[in-house]
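pinning this so it doesn't scroll away 📌
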Amino acid sequence: MHEVGRLRVFHDRTEAGRALAARLGEYARRPDALVLGLPRGGVPVAHAIAAALELPLDVLVVRKLGAPGQPELAIGAIAAGVVVRNPEVGGWFAGDRRMLDATVERERAELARREHLYRANSPPLALEGRTVLLVDDGAATGASMRAAVAVARALHAGFVVVALPTASPEACRALRRDADRVVCLQVPPSFNAVGEWYEQFDPTTDREVIDLLRARSAAPPAAS
């Protein structure tokens, strides 16, 4: 890790997760708490938090909805049947309904594929009444994390915490309206991309996600 001004650049996602865990210590070993990582990049961060706090780990699969013809521009996100639109750009493409519907269907198929890949036949952890820590490696627009919060609410989570190593000011403002608590280690005033705040930001693979989930599930349960 090194610093730019008073802002830190994390070595990798694991270091970012450990730094976040230091801010989330009040949730350590709580029987009602669990950690959900947003695949794929959020899972190494979430794994480091879950290991440090001795909490269960699961994934919450969220897919970005790319704009027609501009797939890198997020017009929203989808997760477990919940669609969240990014109001800043979604209106530009409202008239292109056929393309938008095709994008949603394509991402639903990919979401289902990843759910099966990561969990196989294991059911997701129950969220009802629990304190849920939603984790990603950063947030530029916040659309994916907002979808994750909406899903946690729909599944009757008792208290929703968003935990991010870094995020744009716009994303943090939006997430504070949605979540019960937002813990973001830094909010650079000029935010271009999540990856610029990491020394190592290689894409996380499906294999890594599966291995991290298995490693945490095999860990001894926390003492009550």
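📌 and the second one:
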Amino acid sequence: MPAASAPLLDAAGKPAGDASLDQAIFGADVKPHLLHETVRAELNAQRAGTRGAKSRGLVSGGRAKPWRQKGTGRARAGTTRAPQFTGGGVAFPPGQRNFEVKVNRKARRAALRGALSSHASAGTLGVLDAGAFAEPSTRDAAALVEAWGKERPLVVVAHEDEEALVKSFRNLERVLVTVPAELEVATLVWARSLLVSQAALEDVQGRAR
């Protein structure tokens, strides 16, 4: 099996060589069921689950009996906070909910390897030369993406200390800049192309091992 590699892009977006990749990570099998399970868990983790309503015990007021027990012709009632009254509580109200779904660590890493391998096999993965951006330039970043010729949305993975690179790409339309520690499978599945800096490549591979 040939060693996995990706084009090493210079500041102009042209291939300046090949960057070697870990075959065990970027040449792994893509398992759709693991991708689905992991993406679902990551999206569920973003849900707040803070919706809620008040039951009759939580609604204020209604201390006095609204009318006497007998003789009015109406149904007996003990409080106006009951669900049938306007302003009353809600019967069986929804409360805070935790949407988190547990995914085993091995399964999550296998899904990350599959998502990375999918980009590598499709030719939508590029490695950015470390010296490509000495200073921030959104214009140069846009020109690089245009010269590379890959579809957006584009995900750019770089270290936080690569300030010039981060500032260059973060204002581009349909481009998401993230760090290796926050790279998720859902982000890789959403992206049509992936660009990783040389400095961040080792950390990305380390997360998938």
